[in-house]
Amino acid sequence: MDSPIDPNLGSGSLLIAWQLKDKNVLIVGGGEVASQRVESILVTDAKITILSPAEGLSPRTKRFLELYPDRITYLDRSFTSPDELHNMDMVLTAVDDNDLSLEIVGMCRNARIPVNAADIPDLCDFYFGAQIRDGPLQIMISTNGMGPRLSALIKQKIQGSLTGCEGEAIRKVGELRQLLKVYEPGVGGAAGRKRMKWMTQLCNQWDMEEFASMDEEMMKRIMEEGWAQDRCPFYEEVGGKKKSRTFTAYSPSWSGLLVSSLSFIAGLSVASLLLTRRR
Amino acid sequence: MDSPIDPNLGSGSLLIAWQLKDKNVLIVGGGEVASQRVESILVTDAKITILSPAEGLSPRTKRFLELYPDRITYLDRSFTSPDELHNMDMVLTAVDDNDLSLEIVGMCRNARIPVNAADIPDLCDFYFGAQIRDGPLQIMISTNGMGPRLSALIKQKIQGSLTGCEGEAIRKVGELRQLLKVYEPGVGGAAGRKRMKWMTQLCNQWDMEEFASMDEEMMKRIMEEGWAQDRCPFYEEVGGKKKSRTFTAYSPSWSGLLVSSLSFIAGLSVASLLLTRRR
């Protein structure tokens, strides 16, 4: 457990997964930037309040109001007093009024409410970044404000490196871990360490596609033929079907070989054509 | 700008880049988990206080105390009273005492201080995730607590998809954006939109390696031969050296073509050999 020390320290942000279940989030403003904030918060289970005169609503914000009336409370007016912050757990401003932004940030700071003001990055408690989501899997890419456009490019690159079954694999592994706690209850201590060691080994032994394909029956077999016998079973042992994946994983080389062979044959054919003509 | 609405909403965390420059972070505990918290916070510029009896310090925590005496204040004692939270902007607990954790979380909640307790996930304001850092580029992978081991595997996959020059590219683009603001000052409005449009086009036209290789002279040429003439210059136009990368970027197809051609020639040769023999 005594892992090496990363020399790449200092001057960064603390990337965290903030919990907003049943929390209240106030979004001041209703324009295009505000609509991006609404979307960010809709990812969570927070209760959202949008404060903006109707004439300031972008088409996208209006669409969110139509689609999620149960999650968004809409107040058709401007920000008036510190009372607006009552009961709020987070505040996001996206208004075309720098003075108002500054004022709201000050109020939030006094009330110790985390705040992000789109137009005053220096005073924000936190920033947003490019996001990828696949069920329980969430990935954020932050350039610490230095290259918002590049983070979109890096996001594409990362999306391309994922198979698309990671979210499902994580969900299934989450279920397996719950089942494991039924077989071996107890928080922390020896039981916790034993469970963690076994799960780590299983994760090293199985791949994402295999985890994603687990069903209830297979999980039961993993527990009974694996955990109960103090070992980590292989995928095929517990009913997993050998996939064509083993073949397609090497597809670039296979197709390369195929093209080469076809070219070889083409070369032969051209030569034999020449040969025939010569006769 | 009216981007489509992501249907993948609800039940997630809000992934954010929290700002800790000149903020105070209290870490209660000094064991192995606490040392991971210390490392997470060292990524930022926060001032860290570690509160733990010396006998509870892990080798790794001790190493951090030795390496970063200017960033970490160490208090050799247990948590005693709410006064410990005075002036703190964030609190992380990693102690083998569930009751103490609960108590500290309660105090933080009252004082509205963001808190993470390693042993009580349900009460945390935020979670940590697997992290990748390359200078200004920071990436976090969160499985929302469902598969910590899988996030390590996804981290490896993502690291493999990056070239390693993304951080440098972001840093250089950050410098170019500063320079752009010298040529075209003004916050927001028409100037902001014009700058953004030009930067977006440049980002679509150049790749990461090209941005990473920019020097001061090249940035000046980009501004004078590009921005000043209302166009986006290509990399080679402003002194960028054509890299073997231009070739290797297409290497799968090029090498495929090469192999095919060689095979074609081999086919021809075998045929001509047959032809020669026939004669």
Secondary-structure topology with pairs:
The structure is a homodimer of 279-residue chains.
Chain A lengths: L13 E5 L5 E5 L3 H11 L4 E5 L7 H9 L4 E4 L14 E4 L4 H14 L3 E3 L8 E2 L2 E5 L2 E6 L5 H14 L4 H18 L5 H17 L2 H5 L3 H11 L18 H4 L2 H28 L1
Parallel strand pairs in A: 2-3, 2-5, 3-4, 5-6
Antiparallel strand pairs in A: 8-9
Number of strands of chain A: 9
Q: Please list the strands of the largest sheet of chain A in the order they lie side by side.
A: 4-3-2-5-6
Q: What oligomerization state is this entry in? A: homodimer
The H/E string of chain A reads EEHEHEEHEEEEHHHHHHH
The unreliable regions of chain A are: 245-265, 273-279
The coarse overall form of chain A would be elongated
Biggest chain contact = A-B, 102 and 102 residues
| Mean pLDDT rating of chain A | 87
Structural description of this entry:
The structure is a homodimer of 279-residue chains. Chain A is of the alpha/beta class and 279 residues long. Helices cover 47% and strands 14% of the residues of chain A. Chain A has helices at 32-42, 59-67, 98-111, 148-161, 166-183, 189-205, 208-212, 216-226, 245-248, 251-278; strands at residues 14-18, 24-28, 47-51, 72-75, 90-93, 115-117, 126-127, 130-134, 137-142. In chain A, strands 4-3-2-5-6 form a five-stranded parallel sheet, with helices on both faces. In chain A, strands 8-9 form a two-stranded antiparallel ribbon. In chain A, helix 1 (32-42) runs parallel beside helix 2. The first copy, chain A, is elongated, with a radius of gyration of 27 Å. The model of chain A is unreliable at 245-265 and 273-279 (pLDDT under 50). At the A-B interface, strand 1, helix 1, helix 2, strand 7 and strand 8 of A face strand 1, helix 1, helix 2, strand 7 and strand 8 of B. Strand 9 (137-142) of chain A pairs antiparallel with strand 9 of chain B, so a sheet runs across the interface.
